[in-house]
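Z., the sequence and structure:
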Amino acid sequence: MFTSGTVVHLIGDPCLELHRAKGRGCWYFEFDDHGLSATKMMLVKSINDLPLTTWVNEGRTFAGEM
């Protein structure tokens, strides 16, 4: 088992966070560099529904696109 903190730490981008959307049954990455901001939804109920490598790859791709 892993946490959102583990995912963000492994991605290593200080502008990226990972949150659970309360009441929606999903998670989302949030990118904010105080000039550019965006979110990317991940449609899973539990963070552990996807492998850690998938979270890291999705987060790195999203941060790279920003």
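The CA atoms of residues 15 and 22 lie 21 Å apart. The chain is about 35% helix and 30% strand.

Let me know what you think.
H.
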